[in-house]
Design brief:
This protein is an all-alpha fold and about 170 residues long. It folds into two domains: about 5-85; about 85-160, no CATH class. About 65% of the residues lie in helices and about 0% in strands. It is built from ten helices and no strands. It has helices at about 5-10, 10-25, 25-40, 45-50, 55-65, 70-85, 85-95, 115-130, 130-145, 150-160. The two termini are about 15 Å apart.
Length: about 170
């Protein structure tokens, strides 16, 4: 699944929470996203900026559902998780035995394979300690980090009822 496909399938409340967090914690990024997405649609940023915040977020979400917004959408997810959910990233890396910098950023290359047992145990732990929808979103975004994702992670994302985007 690509970033724009995630935006198509995700619970809109998660996107609203993400944008509210970005707006509050990284205002330059929020304005940059508005500028980029409005430029892609041949609009001026003021077109979105003058709207009430809930309407801004709805417009941004709609724009991120487009294939042309895939790179921007993936970058937003990465920033949101790297800055807003470091504890989740750290717990995942620790559970999977992936070396990281202590802030959730992987040191070196990502593993070519993910151990089935570690993956199941780590997901169980994460779902037990975090909002399952945030865990699901993170796992979907993590799976984007290689060209084809990891087969066992993809399988769990499709089959585990706790890991649904909507």
């Amino acid at each position: 699944m690509t970033a724009f496909e995630i935006y198509q399938k995700i619970d809109p409340s998660l996107i609203s929470d993400m944008f509210l967090w970005i707006r509050e914690n990284d205002r330059p990024l929020y304005k940059s996203v508005i500028a980029t997405l409005t430029a892609n649609r041949r609009l001026r940023p003021v077109f979105v900026e003058k709207k009430p915040v809930p309407e801004q977020i709805a417009w941004l979400h709609k724009a991120l559902k487009l294939k042309t917004s895939d790179t921007v959408g993936e970058h937003l997810f990465q920033v949101y998780f790297m800055k807003g959910h470091q504890d989740l990233l750290i717990a995942f890396c620790d559970g999977m035995g992936i070396k990281h910098d202590g802030e959730g950023s992987v040191d070196g290359a990502l593993p070519e394979t993910l151990d089935d047992e570690k993956l199941k145990t780590t997901i169980d732990t994460l779902v037990g300690s975090h909002d399952p929808k945030i865990v699901t979103l993170y796992l979907q975004v993590f799976n984007l980090q290689t060209a084809t994702g990891w087969n066992n992670l993809s399988g769990l994302l499709e089959s585990d009822d706790r890991l649904k985007l909507a």
